[in-house]
């Protein structure tokens, strides 16, 4: 949707932000809708809107309305930091959005500020309440970071006791916009061990097809727990996702450097058949896994990629 964001999570971008895309570089809503309509007519059944922060882009709701009307689209979802989201929830519900991913790395206000460089935890918690009040399924995303929020793992898991939410712990990836990676020592195995220490009764759930998370349940809890091995990349074999960055770059893997610019094809006046053929060609040649994809990539901010 955009590379811009109203938070400055240190694992995603530097405090001063990144080199923002100019308006002319961004795909217009019309271009995005055309690309999505083409993909949905040809077998894509789920679209997730992300960024950057989707709600900082002006006029997002008319665009969402357009998407929601695409024949054949089974699921429309959104990933948000929850700061500006709450007033839009009734409209999201009306559009048929059944599930939202909300990012929250800690329940402690000081640590939230230290991680995101903004004092917005109350707004995020309000969004969580409102989503649940509107009966929208919520997946909470928490990146696990050495020395930053590992003490939050168990309190976040505890939310699943009374709330019907899925709390998903994500391995930190090297997309912090600084060009310098600091690989986390918290891989999915260590995260699982930390959860089991607090909840020895944790049970493995069957993972749905194409799932990127390993899923668990604690007996007696209303919600579930998931772990996303985003850095270890042990789920590549079942990943069926593609993504399009705000400047129209198709990525067949989060780790690749972009394999085709859809915006440029559209702006060059290519007919749908040509754009579709280019999509097919790119998808047919996708890397075997995220390690192979990474060989040709540079590490950008996750806000540019679309996390
Ligand atoms: N602004 C929205 C949000 O915060 O949910 C959507 C975009 S954000 C880039 C999407 C997700 O990517 C968030 O859950 C965020 O925590 C995650 N993310 C960003 N940088 C990451 C990194 N370096 N490693 C792992 N996850 C990251």
Explain the overall architecture:
There is one protein chain. The chain has helices at residues 29-41, 60-68, 89-94, 109-116, 121-133, 153-162, 188-198, 262-267, 272-284, 290-294, 302-305; strands at 46-49, 75-80, 99-103, 137-144, 165-171, 203-204, 213-217, 224-228, 243-244, 249-251, 260-261. It is an alpha/beta fold. Strands 1-2-3-4-5-8-7-6 form an eight-stranded mixed β-sheet, with helices on one face. It has a three-stranded antiparallel β-sheet with strand order 9-10-11. The longest helix has 13 residues, at 29-41. It starts with 28 loop residues before the first helix and ends with a helix. The mean pLDDT is 95. The chain binds S-adenosylmethionine. The site of S-adenosylmethionine has 21 residues, from strand 2, strand 4 and helix 11.
- SSE pattern: HEHEHEHHEHEHEEEEEEHHHH
Q: How many strands appear in the DSSP assignment? A: 11
Hetero groups in this structure are:
S-adenosylmethionine
How are the strands ordered across the major sheet?
1-2-3-4-5-8-7-6
First-residue to last-residue Cα separation: 11 Å
Helical content, roughly?
A: 25-40%
Radius of gyration: 19 Å
In round numbers, the mean pLDDT is 95
Q: Describe the sheet with the most strands.
A: 8 strands, mixed
- So how many helices? 11
**Mass-distribution shape:** globular
Uncertain ranges = none
Going by helix content, strand content and strand pairing, the class is alpha/beta
- Beta-strand content estimate: 15-25%
């Amino acid at each position: 949707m955009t590379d811009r964001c109203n938070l400055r999570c240190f694992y995603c971008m530097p405090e001063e932000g990144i080199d923002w895309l100019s308006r002319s570089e961004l795909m217009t809503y019309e271009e995005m809708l055309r690309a999505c309509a083409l993909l949905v007519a040809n077998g894509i059944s789920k679209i997730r809107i992300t960024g950057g922060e989707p709600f900082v882009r002006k006029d997002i709701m008319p665009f969402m309305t357009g998407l929601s009307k695409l024949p054949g689209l089974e699921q429309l979802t959104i990933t948000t930091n929850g700061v500006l989201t709450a007033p839009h929830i009734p409209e999201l519900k009306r559009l048929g959005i059944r599930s939202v991913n909300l990012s929250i790395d800690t329940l402690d206000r000081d640590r939230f500020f230290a991680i995101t460089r903004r004092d917005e935890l109350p707004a995020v918690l309000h969004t969580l309440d409102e989503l649940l009040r509107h009966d929208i399924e919520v997946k909470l995303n928490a990146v696990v970071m050495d020395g930053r929020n590992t003490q939050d793992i168990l309190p976040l898991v505890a939310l699943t006791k009374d709330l019907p939410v899925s709390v998903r712990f994500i391995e930190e990836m090297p997309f912090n916009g600084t060009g310098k990676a600091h690989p986390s020592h918290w891989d999915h195995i260590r995260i699982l061990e930390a959860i089991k220490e607090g909840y020895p009764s944790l049970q493995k759930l069957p993972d749905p097809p194409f799932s990127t998370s390993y899923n668990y349940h604690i007996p007696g809890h209303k919600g579930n727990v998931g772990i996303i091995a985003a850095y270890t990349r042990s789920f590549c074999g079942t990943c069926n996702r593609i993504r399009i960055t705000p400047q129209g770059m198709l990525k067949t893997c989060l780790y690749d450097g972009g394999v085709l610019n859809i915006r440029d094809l559209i702006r060059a006046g290519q007919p749908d058949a040509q754009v579709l053929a280019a999509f097919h060609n790119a998808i047919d040649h996708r890397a075997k896994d995220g390690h192979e994809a990474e060989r040709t990539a540079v590490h950008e901010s996750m806000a540019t990629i679309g996390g």
